[in-house]
Design a protein that fits this description.
The structure is a homodimer of 97-residue chains. Chain A is α+β, with helices and mostly antiparallel strands and 97 residues long. Chain A has helices at 2-13, 28-36, 46-51, 53-69, and strands spanning 15-21, 40-44, 73-77, 81-85, 89-92. The first copy, chain A, is globular and about 35 Å long. The interface between A and B is medium-sized, with 29 and 29 residues.
């Protein structure tokens, strides 16, 4: 119990921001795992978009629901990327971009 | 003292991720302020790049030194953006992007 709490504290004090591409629908399991480990994920979605727009739609929808379900956040970042955050990180939305 | 500690804890438990454009060299003061407040900043650098490549160079160099100096991290995100993190957030670098 004591060790678990220490582990949780260590994770919180060193959040990771990971940027990588989404190449296949199966890659979203890795994204979910990263979110569970409190990492922030910046996902370049163009590789999957070029392969299949339908699969991209499904992937984004599933990640949207997953992020919402865990109390995290998700937002588009230009044309090529989305950013997904764990519950402790909020995406601040500017009025003017 | 007790209030200060509570304030620090509250900030830590709700990190913000802010995405906004860099339009002028003067905008970096805002970036530095956000970093001091433990926010993660994703900066779209194209507006300043279109205005002056020299000013962009100076801005990125200054932000690089600032992030390094405070124990944070900075990385390029494609052609249009850079991401800068406060000390508690580490940028994870993939071997293959």
């Amino acid at each position: 119990m004591g060790q678990e709490m220490l582990g949780a504290k260590q994770k919180e004090s060193s959040t990771y921001l990971k940027a990588y591409p989404l190449r296949a629908l199966g890659d979203i399991d890795k994204v979910k795992e990263d979110l569970r480990n409190s990492s922030i994920v910046i996902l370049r979605i163009t590789p999957l978009a070029q392969k299949s727009v339908d699969e991209l739609k499904r992937a984004v929808e599933e990640l949207y629901q997953y992020a919402e379900g865990m109390g995290g956040d998700i937002a588009r970042l230009g044309e090529e990327r989305i950013v997904i955050t764990p519950p402790n990180v909020k995406i601040w939305r500017a009025l003017a971009q």
